[in-house]
Amino acid sequence: MASLLNDPTMERLFKGHKDPVTCVHFSPNSKLLASGSVDKSLMIWNLSANGRSLRFVNHQDAVTCVQFCPVGNLVATSSKDRMVRLWKPSIKGESTVFKAHTAAVRSVGFSQDGARLVTASDDKSVKVWSVCRRCFLYSLNQHTNWVRCARFSPDGRLIVSCGDDRTVRLWDTSSKNCINCFSDNCGSATYVDFNSRGTCIASSGADSALKIWDIRTNKLIQHYQVHSGGVNSFSFHPSDNYLISGSSDGTIKILDLLEGRLIYTLHGHKGAVLTVAFSTAGELFASGGVDSQVMLWRTNFDTKSYREVLEQHRQRAVPKPPPHLTDIHPRVPHLHLTHPTDIEVGPGLTDTHSAEPEIVELREASHQDPHQDTDEHHAEDGHARDSSSSVATGTEDEGWTRDESGGEGSQKKRGGDNSRERRDKDFRTRREDDASKRGPEDSETAHPVDMSEVASGHPRVLNSILQHMVKQLGVLTETVSVLEERLSLTENKVQECLAQTQRTGGPPDRPPDNLT
Length: 516
What we know:
The protein has 516 residues and is an alpha+beta fold. The protein folds into 2 domains: 8-18 and 104-361, Methylamine Dehydrogenase, Chain H, CATH 2.130.10; 395-504, no CATH class. The chain has helices spanning 306-314, 372-380, 395-411, 420-438, 451-455, 459-504; strands spanning 9-15, 21-26, 32-37, 42-46, 53-56, 63-68, 75-79, 83-87, 95-99, 105-110, 116-121, 126-130, 135-140, 147-152, 158-163, 168-172, 177-182, 189-194, 200-205, 210-214, 219-224, 231-236, 242-247, 251-256, 261-267, 273-278, 284-289, 293-298, 343-345, 359-362, 385-387. The strands form 7 sheets. The chain has a 5-stranded mixed beta sheet, with no helix packed on it. The longest helix has 46 residues, at 459-504. It is elongated, with a radius of gyration of 33 Å. It starts with 8 loop residues before the first strand and ends in a 12-residue tail after the last helix. The relative contact order is 0.11. The model is unreliable at 1-5, 316-355, 365-419 and 437-457 (pLDDT under 50).
């Protein structure tokens, strides 16, 4: 049993999501952590002490999966809005949209070289996409119910998928054929993945079971029944010696795969744990749940090499044969008690993060694209649509702008007097009235616009800017109207002069009044 110093500890607690956290994933350098939520947002957490975090809110429904690209600066997200987005995790918030499926997209995953994406959906299909060309490649269609998860093997030659049809399917990416189907699940299969060497696959299900198959022999080699609720997610340690799992029973379990036993039960989330993930090097892992919180943990139990652990085990009072270092032990299915004797990190966890990170919210400006139908048609044919996300003014602000601009133009009417002096006087009077109503608080010189507040999407600043724009548009409208009337008057006088010249056969006796 591991010593107390080697127990996992919680490093930080991130609060920013408003609804359950459905997915987490570390960047390749482990400096960033991405999380998705039912609140339709993607959060990019900076793990440095005073790092600024970003919130992207362009999805129209719950975010179901998030993954960093192993190479390059990209983040992929899937959503129930049937879209897949490729993000550049920067302040610009740029993203590329794939209209990927005809139903909710449940998972998205990169190949190890970052060249392809695999997506799984409630439309019962698995699809593969080209990242560089932003286009659809091919579809895998043998599942008979919703597909919950799909992942590439480390070498990119295989794809594994699982779903509500209670099957785990293994696909060959070159022939596009299903080469194996594991159908001994008692319930819906919720999550599936390869180990880091690509020799084994694991699956979790609603029946609270965790199963591991050796794909070289196509045999079930481990079967864990350690949770009392459905297993929603799991993650292999990079060494393949450990596995963490999150469950609807509110706990995180840590399994020692070489010894084939449960070693830790972690309590921290209030409610179901929906997602867990190891960092690239395995020194950290993260979890998220229905309590809308993201927890960052330090692993600790993997600080010693497994040879040192075996040496300590040999010194126990009742020695047992050590497991083989290059294989998984035992090689037969086995069950664990529902309440095993284990080391618990209790619920008395504290927030070790001194201050909540600064969050910058980014979203795509809400507008109706006149080419939207055409773009969606092309996307269905396998093409993605690029969009650049900017700071949001929000739908309510845009609706207000349209109403105000229409009302402003409809309320201001011109008088019927044809006298140029009367029109100019009325125009100057209206200008002075508008200036007196605005007052010094609306003057650009008195209060210059703070662009930092604009970048943060502050409603008060945005409303003030929009009001000022509407008023300026009203002034421009009046100016154009006066110019049009003066031009019309001049044209009439010129026509009178021409008519008089034609009647008399010479120039007029005197120039017309008010001719300029």
